[in-house]
Design brief:
Elements (H helix, E strand, L loop, with lengths): L5 E5 L3 H13 L3 E5 L5 H8 L3 E5 L7 H9 L9 E5 L4 H7 L4 E4 L4 H11 L9
Parallel strand pairs: 1-2, 1-3, 3-4, 4-5
Protein name: Response regulatory domain-containing protein
Pfam family, one: Response_reg
Keywords: Phosphoprotein
Amino acid sequence: MVTKQRILVVDDDSGVLEAIKIILVDSGFKVKTIMRADEFEKVMTSFRPDLVMLDIWMPKISGEELCRKIKGNDDLKKIPVVLLSASNRTEKISKKCKADDYLTKPFDMEDLIETVKRNLLPFPVLKV
């Protein structure tokens, strides 16, 4: 039995979350979405994603800050991080926080799937 790769998507826009989830689930991935960044650490532990997608501009904790937490943690730093934003500064912010990639909103279905596949490792990162 093949284990589906797990993707965690964090965005404060429910419409964006739902669209991303539908596309990725239809493409064969297991997807968990959260709207509040304060749920992030709990979900990282319980869901154990193989890739994380973060909206840069969220209330309370930014995607940039969450990316830094992932990349600064020895147990998590190998998990690919893709930043999402409509900002023209997305590429610069991605480099600054050491994200693996970024997508500029709006993006199409093909760009989303291609970016996810390009950044996923060939096997799950965190399995117990």
